[in-house]
Amino acid sequence: MSKSLSTFFLVLLLFQANAQENLPKVLVHPDQKYLMTADGKPFFWLADTAWELLHRLDLEETEFYLETRKKQGFNVIQAVALAELDGINDPNAYGEKPFKSLQTWEYNEAYFQHIDQVFKLAAEKGFYIAFLPTWGDKLFKNSWGTGPEIFTPESAYNYGKWIGKRYKDQTNLIWVIGGDRNPRENSEDIYVWNEMARGIKDSGASQLMTFHPQPSSPGGSSNWFHQESWLDFNMHQTGHCPNQPTYQKILHDLSLSPTKPSIDGEPMYEEHPKCFNAKELGYSEAADIRRIMYWNVFAGAAGQSYGCHAVWQMYDLDKTPVNAPLKPWNLSLDLEMANQVKHLKEVILSRNYFDRINDQSLIANSQEDNDEFVVASRGNQGEYAMFYFPTGKETALDLSNLQGEKFEGNWFDPRTGVSFGSVILEGKKNIVTPPSQGRGNDWVLILDSIN
């Protein structure tokens, strides 16, 4: 091979590597309800909760983790720089702590170089990092957390500006302020978080930004920060108990002005003790998690986060367990819901994405906020509709907001991602019965107007 040809292939390989590393930035769509990439394509947020990734795994373990999640269809990883599990004093997998001196706020370059490498590896595999500069216990510990409490308005601003400058050119980054703590009444907490966000913005960073709260009502981040210019989309934590009408939080956010996208950034984790009470209630089940996720997205969420209880904490046998994980993180990557959540993205992206709206008037039955609540979504022009039936119950439909008088559809199985059956409905009033009924027999009906 000639020298010039060798040089050509080397340049080509470098170009391809750079193209992989520089993923298009994620932006808010002009209609303000959903996300898109900078090249105008739909971006359906499908995240895994890996809070301790940057703290506990080395690069080899990180590559194994990312490769597994890539095969399962995820596109966002939620991770924290100053991590929850004693992330200030407990070193990372290479023995490095984030600070050389906390008294003088002297950062440890080696610690953050590891984070740099994870960002690079994630980009190569097509992942965005939903990046928390710190966990909330570094602002206040509340009833749990090891802290230490290091943030004042001044230090929050300075840290935000420092870390913002470091990662301002990272296109596969989405900023997440907060970290499992809600601002306390009669405190300066809101001011501290605003200062951290201001510091990031003043650094020149222009990536999207949100806030990760604890469970709260009526919204999540919107309760405190909806009017802040730095908050580009809202985030919830809907908690670790089943039987919560999580769709109400999404609907609440989307009713606010100005309109901003909304995402459940922490639903009930897979293999998590229900309501933190494994002895009496057992562990979460895929049917509960699917219901939460489909409810949220069909209500209008811009995507959905997933989490596994062992994986968020990167639990291993040499680690102190938090709330009784069942097995180590690497043995917990291949759980049922981790392999099923990609089907939610598939069904949503099968139709025109940006004009999708929630429309509960399509359900003719009166409904209670229980496990059987059927949620409906349709195209803005009425050209299609999707219905999610958590328990497969017979349901009356009112198709008045859809085009035409005849509709063709099929059943979509959230467990397998398989569509089957031919459903023909005529007229605006119909009663449908999903293929099977009962707990765990959830179904999606997709209808398209054909006249």
UniProtKB/TrEMBL annotation:
Alphabetized GO MF terms: hydrolase activity
Keyword tags: Hydrolase, Signal
Lineage top rank: taxon: Bacteria
Domain annotation Apiosidase-like catalytic: ranges: 31-354
Family matches, as InterPro entries: Apiosidase-like_cat_dom, Collagen-bd_put, GH
Signal peptide start-end: 1-19
Transmembrane annotation, as ranges: none
Span of domain Putative collagen-binding: 358-448
The protein's name in its UniProt record: Glycoside hydrolase family 140 protein
Species for this entry: Algoriphagus pacificus
Lineage, highest ranks first: Bacteria, Pseudomonadati, Bacteroidota, Cytophagia, Cytophagales
